[in-house]
Automatic annotation (TrEMBL):
Family according to the record: Belongs to the NDK family.
Required cofactor names: Mg(2+)
Name this protein carries in UniProt: nucleoside-diphosphate kinase
Gene3D superfamilies: Nucleoside diphosphate kinase-like domain
First-tier enzyme category under EC: transferase
Species the sequence originates in: Chelonoidis abingdonii (Abingdon island giant tortoise)
Length: 81
């Protein structure tokens, strides 16, 4: 029987990056069995964030979320489990 893998996207938000928690956060996911396949340190564009959070666009906190996510760098982490 073949094993089924699931791809997972994990974003470490600006405060996690600012507080130096990237390694600890990734370690927790790896301890749960996730395998790191890609990671990118970046400043997310407004267009990318609007696309990523499109399902939240009608919520009252949406504008604040986009502003917060643009306030500093984020780490984009792709894993397989």
């Amino acid at each position: 029987m073949a094993s089924i893998s699931e791809r997972t996207f994990i974003a470490i938000k600006p405060d996690g990056v600012q507080w130096g928690l990237v390694g600890k956060i990734i370690t927790r996911f790896e301890q749960k069995g996730f395998k790191l396949v890609a990671m990118k340190f970046m400043h997310a564009s407004e267009d990318l964030l609007k696309e990523h959070y499109t399902d939240l666009k009608d919520r009252p906190f949406y504008a604040g979320l986009i502003k917060y996510m643009r306030s500093g760098p984020v780490v984009e982490h792709h894993s397989w489990q």
